[in-house]
Structures are given as structure tokens and as C-alpha cells.
Amino acid sequence: MTAASTTKSPITFRTPSSEDGMEVWDLIRKAGPLDENSVYCNLIQCDHFAETCVIAELDGSIVGWISAFIPPDTPDTLFVWQVAVGEAARGRGVAKKMLTELFAREICADVTHLKTTITGDNEASWALFNSFADSMDAELGFEAHYKRDTHFAGRHATEYMVTIEDISPEREAETEKTATAG
């Protein structure tokens, strides 16, 4: 272990801006095993969906990213598109803290459900969302949604729609206090 890896510089969280698009794209590319979108897609996310996306920074560098949005037809639901944490920030609970940051924002005041899709073999994502559901004392369910043969012509693993229900503002406030205390 190097001296740099044992240093516990603070990680800060913020809303992205359009200038972050390229660095977000680079983080996703390096973090793996995420599907890579175009730089333009990440630029649009940072610009047009900024209020429902989160950036984590460590020493001025982007080390974490969540892209999410509130679907127009389900204003009580936050759909999480991608979660990426760079190597420099792993093991510090950054992904869960970013989710907590999102749920503390005014734009999520009426959100009581979280949805995301996860492949069966993505152990890190399953652990994250199970842990988040547990911390919110909420129910997590899942079912096959985008299927390998039906939707991906056999070229991509089935994506399971994960739903966390009954997230309340009281639980969010408690979780935020816990996340900032640690």
C-alpha cells in the first residue's frame, strides 16, 4: 500500500456541469465494467440532467459519478442509469454516499422509489443497491427486464429491473446523517 492510498483526503459531492462531460466519460471508461456511452451522451447528462446526477471529487479530480433521472410518467421514481467509482475512491462507500446525496436533494423530495437495471453477474451493483435498500429500511425486488435474446440479440446479458420501494424522507434524513458522520 502506498502513502497516497492511505491518505484520507475528503471526498466532496456536487452537481455536474457541462464542462464535466469529458472527465465523466473517461471515469466510466476506466472504472469498468460499465457500458460506455458517447462523450456527447455524458455531456448531455451533465448539462440537462445535472440535478439528478452526482459527481464525487477527491483532490480536485472526479472519482465518482451517478447518472439518474426522474421519468416524466413516474415522478415518484428515480431511475439510476450508471454508477461509477474510480480506483482512487474505492472502499470508502462513495457509491452509497452519492445515492444518499441524490435523495437529499430538493428535486427528489417526492421520490419514494428507486429503479435501476443490473446484470446478474454485477456483484458490486447488487451489493450497493441491497445495502442502500437496507439503510432505507425499504424493500428491494427485481425481475428480468431487458432480456439477452429479446432485447440484445444474444450480445449482452439480461438486465434485471431492480426496484427499491417505500423510501421515505425520514429515512433519507437519517441515512444522510449516517453517511456524513462516517
Structure description:
- It is a single chain.
- This protein is α+β, with helices and mostly antiparallel strands and 182 residues long.
- It has a single domain, classed as 3-Layer(aba) Sandwich (Aminopeptidase), CATH 3.40.630.30.
- It has seven helices and seven strands; from the N terminus they run H-E-H-H-E-E-E-H-E-H-E-H-E-H.
- It has helices at 3-6, 21-31, 39-48, 94-104, 123-135, 148-152, 169-181, and strands at 11-14, 54-58, 61-69, 77-85, 113-119, 139-146, 159-165.
- It has a seven-stranded mixed sheet with strand order 1-2-3-4-5-7-6.
- Helix 4 (94-104) crosses helix 5 (123-135) and helix 4 packs across helix 7 (169-181).
- The two termini are 22 Å apart.
List keywords for this structure.
seven-stranded mixed beta sheet, 182 residues, 7 helices, alpha+beta, 7 strands, Aminopeptidase, disordered C terminus
